[in-house]
Design brief:
Chain lengths: 459, 189
């Protein structure tokens, strides 16, 4: 939707105004992370699977040119029409042209982070085409006129009471009913009508197999299938990095994806679309939008291995406590923070700093992307390119001076402890970012080196 | 230069040196491909399993499990006018009974193809779904499944694992999102 200009810290502040909600968000995502752990532990070969998946993706990136050509040729042989889009604008134009050619006024869309990245919905609406998002979570945020806040759990930031209210307003459910079972049943009835009326269906793509030209789409709800198997036109939109070499490699990725994402053994449906249904038109839109550029950044190209499971978000202490919207990008969390600066360094310069670099994201990543190292490397690139604030740079320079001169460091420490004791108000105030949401610790009576000198046993 | 050529040229210039594909041997470990293992996972997903000797037992079991079924479609029936009709007309199917090709014990998934179901939308649009799977078609993991399935023969195939579901509202699990609200698996033989 609208491009936000506020940075992560500012948006996270807003999210943190409602403390009980932050705690709920934090605990719920941690619960999903814990489910992922339990599922992973049932597979003794889990680490070998991760290594294998990572190597397959590396092979795919190293042969991407040939695999894409192979995929295109196979897909065409299967009867699909293949399009290439250099950027978001071209992607949106291609999709709009297809829909206009068929006179489509209303269409259904299953989850596709790529179309979010390209801001397809507002583009279609501006062209008089109504888009109905059919993933329940996506439909909810669409009714709320918000973007998804998580790639797998799009409305994880919303409470059921708010959803009940949205449904009351838009779907006519009784006011005050916030029962998930009831609301899901209402959405099922509402969206069934849309599936039955839609002239076209857009789906995302989880994996595209070069060897066979087929695309695999994974859902729990069955919404991608309900859309694609009923509509006359199926448009599958995919980033060029979704390519995997061979069909048998699906076994590796399907074993990892849902276990990493939500702690389920597999999604309810793993649909393999190869040929259009009789009488149907199947379009595949291959989108670059900066991916070929990222491929050339040696330090960052591994981010293209991502299979969009969201495990890095669920485990991230910063994501859990700042919410997906604070990342102001289609893909939030640690993976979003290493993908976004490639799209626009200026707009997303804040994101690689929205991390403690604890490394938990890299530890859970099913394709072993070195996410936290890339966050650290992006920081260096962004500072060098001049995209960080001058205050931060100046502060870092002062720190460098203090930390590299032992005498200055000792004096500064002494002064600091004295100030904290004599004038606690100097540090316990809102000007000090460390004071936000926490009490400052009591200042110690002495520094470690003073203590050490006093207590050192003579040797 | 077209976008296709531009994208391909940029990729060729930027892609890393080609690396070898890893071997997939040993990834299945000692996962059991037994009926017990399959049943446990399927029930965890909200599915129900019946062991039967012949397909003729199915109607009675379904009548008991689902009183009041109106429109029941058996995909393997030789008479299937519905297969050539507009798929939208399947909207009122209460129960679809479809053949499965392979079952996977580690995750409860069953491979179902277009050849067997005739209308792609059938196992999704029906209110309830039953899959019939021969006992000897159970495999331990996805690796064995893809080995057995081999090269694609059909235009569409799907692994189905349990009934459709969502947990999008506050992570509360609800069975019956857009696809079938329940799943019965008949293990035959």
């Amino acid at each position: 939707m609208n491009r936000q200009t506020a940075d992560h810290a500012t948006l996270a502040d807003k999210f943190n105004e409602d403390e009980p909600r932050v705690n709920w968000h934090d605990q719920t995502l941690w619960w999903v992370r814990a489910k992922r752990d339990r599922m992973a532990w049932t597979i003794p070969e889990w680490e070998q699977l991760r290594d294998t998946a990572s190597s397959i993706k590396l092979n795919a990136l190293g042969n991407l040119h040939d695999y894409l050509l192979q995929f295109e040729q196979q897909a065409q042989q299967n009867g699909a029409i293949v399009h290439w889009a250099a950027d978001a604008a071209e992607h949106n134009r291609i999709v709009t042209d297809i829909l206009q050619k068929h006179g489509v006024k209303r269409m259904v869309k299953s989850k596709s982070m790529l179309t979010e990245e390209c801001h397809l919905n507002p583009h279609l609406e501006a062209n008089g085409i109504e888009v109905i998002d059919t993933d329940l979570g996506e439909r909810i945020v669409q009714l709320a006129k918000e973007p998804p806040s998580h790639i797998v759990l799009p409305c994880i930031h919303k409470k059921k009471e708010e959803i009940g209210e949205l449904f009351h307003e838009h779907l006519g459910t009784p006011a005050g009913n916030a029962d998930p079972q009831f609301l899901t049943a209402a959405a099922r009835l509402h969206l069934r009508k849309e599936f039955l009326q839609a002239d076209a269906a857009i789906t995302g793509v989880n994996f595209a197999v070069a060897e066979t030209g087929e695309m695999v789409v994974c859902t729990n709800e069955g919404n991608a299938d309900m859309g694609a198997h009923l509509a006359k036109v199926h448009i599958a939109c995919m980033g060029i990095e979704k390519i995997i070499p061979q069909r048998k490699h699906l076994g590796v990725f399907l074993r990892l994806l849902a276990r990493s994402a939500t702690g389920q053994p597999i999604t309810t449906y793993s649909s393999h679309f190869r040929k259009p249904r009789e009488g149907q038109e199947l379009h595949i839109v291959l989108v670059d939008n900066g991916r070929s550029r990222q491929l050339g950044r040696e330090d960052f190209r591994n981010s293209l291995k991502c299979i969009r499971c969201g495990a890095c978000m669920n485990t991230c202490p910063v994501y859990r406590r700042s919410g997906g919207h604070s990342y102001h990008n289609a893909v939030a969390g640690p993976i979003g923070a290493i993908l976004a600066p490639n799209l626009d360094m200026k707009d997303y310069a804040d994101l690689p700093f929205a991390s403690t670099l604890c490394g938990s994201c890299s530890n859970v990543c099913p394709v072993k992307i070195d996410i936290h190292q890339q966050l650290y490397k992006w920081r260096q690139v962004l500072v060098k390119e001049g995209y960080t604030s001058t205050a931060k740079t100046a502060g870092m320079k002062v720190m460098t001076g203090v930390l590299s001169a032992p005498g200055v460091y000792k004096t500064a420490g002494k002064m600091g402890r004295w100030v904290m004791r004599a004038f606690p108000g100097m540090v316990n105030n809102r000007m000090n970012p460390w004071y936000k949401q926490r009490e400052m610790p009591a200042p110690p009576a002495q520094s470690f080196s003073e203590w050490y000198k006093k207590n050192k046993k003579s040797t | 230069m077209s976008s296709r050529e531009k994208i391909l040229a940029a990729i060729k210039q930027h892609q890393p040196e080609a690396s070898a594909l890893p071997s997939l041997t040993g990834l299945s470990g000692n996962m059991p491909g037994t009926l017990e293992a399959y049943r446990k996972v399927l029930e965890g997903l909200g599915g129900v399993l019946f062991e039967i000797k012949a397909e003729s037992e199915i109607p009675a079991i379904l009548a008991q499990q689902y009183p009041g079924l109106q429109r029941v479609i058996t995909a393997s029936d030789i008479q299937r006018a519905w297969a050539n009709e507009d798929p939208h007309l399947l909207e009122d199917v209460d129960m679809a009974i479809v053949p499965g090709q392979w079952g996977v014990a580690e995750n409860g998934a069953i491979w179902v193809t277009e050849e067997d179901i005739h209308a792609r939308v059938l196992p999704f649009i029906c209110q309830h779904l039953a899959i019939v799977l021969p006992r000897e078609r159970l495999l331990p993991t996805m690796h064995e499944a893809y080995e057995q399935i081999g090269a694609p023969q059909s235009g569409f195939g799907v692994f189905i694992a349990g009934p459709s579901k969502t947990a999008d509202i506050e992570q509360s699990l609800v069975l019956g999102a857009h696809g079938a609200k329940s799943l019965v698996v008949f293990i035959i033989g």
